[in-house]
User: Fold this.
Amino acid sequence: MTDDNITVLRARGRRLAKRVRSDGTIDAYDSARTYDLFTAPIADLAALATLLDRLLARPDCAVVRGAIIDPARTQGVRRRVHPDPSTGECPTLREAPRLWLALDVDSAERPEAVPAHDLPGCAAAAIRGLPKAFHDASCIVQASGSHGLKPGLRLRLWYWLSRPLTGPELKRWFRGVPVDPAVFRPAQVIYTAAPIFDRAADNPLSARMVAVSGASSTVTAPSAAALAPPRRPPAPLPSPRAPSANRYASVALTNAAARVYRAAEGRRHDTLLSEAIGLARFVAAGLLTESEVAETLRGAGEHVGKPGEECEQIVAWAIAHPSNRPLPAGIGR
Assistant:
C-alpha cells in the first residue's frame, strides 16, 4: 500500500538545474512561471531513492512538498498556495503532511579530512548538527549543484519519518538547527536534477547521490503535542461599532473568529478562506469594513499559528471577489 506521495514539477523548456561552464562560472536555474504537476506515489525511503535517481537526469523537473489541489488543473499552472489578489487566480497547491523529509544543509563547514566526493563522510559531518533522532537513521545523501564547486557542505538529506509532519511542524522542530527552512513551504521548489557541465572533466563528483544505512529506517518524529504552536492569549472578539450597528453582521464576525480558533491543524487555511469569503458579503453590503474583517481574522489566524501577512492576503482576495450568495432577508442597509 502506498504510504505517501510527492509532487513533481515539470517546467517545459526551462532548466531546473545549474549549468557549469567551461570557464568555471555557474549559471543559476532558469526562472519558470508555469509548470506541469504530477503526483508520484512512494511507499518508503527506497522508493523515494528510485524516484530521485530518475530525477537526477531530468533537468526540467523538481519537486515540492505541497499536494495538488485540483487533479484536473495541473498543466501549465503556477505554484500558488493562496489566491492571487490581483488576478483572482486560484491556488494549485496546499499544505500536506508528509512522511518524506528533505533537509537542505548549505555552507556548513566541511572537515579538512573529508573530501567533497566522499558523500557519506560529508553527510556524517552534516548530521552531527541535526537533532539526535537523525543520528542513527538511514538517509539519502544528495549533492547540491554547488557541492564540490563552492566551499563547505552543500547537501540535501532525505529521510523517512515515523509519522507525517506538516511544514509548520517542521519549522518548529528545526528552529535553531542549521538547515534551510524554506523547503518546508508547500510551494518551494526542491531541486533534484544534477548540474549540467559543459565539459564532463570539470565534474568533481563521480556520484551525486548515495544511500546511507542506519540503525533505523525511519526517523522518530516528536509527538503532535510537542510540535504544537504555543498558545497565545485569545485575541479580543469584535464588538458592535455603535448602537446602530447591524447585530447580525457583528455576530457573524464573532462566529467567524471562533471557527478559526477551533479549526484543526491542516484545516486552518481553508477555514480562514471560507470565513473571509463569507464576511466579504457584509463588507460589500456596507455592514462591516474591510479593516474590521482583516483585523479580526488576522488576530484569529495568528492565534492558531498562521502568519499575519498570509491572513491579510486571504482577506484581501476575498474582499476583491465577494460571493454572489445574498444575505438573509431583512439584513442590510
DSSP finds seven helices and 13 strands in the chain.
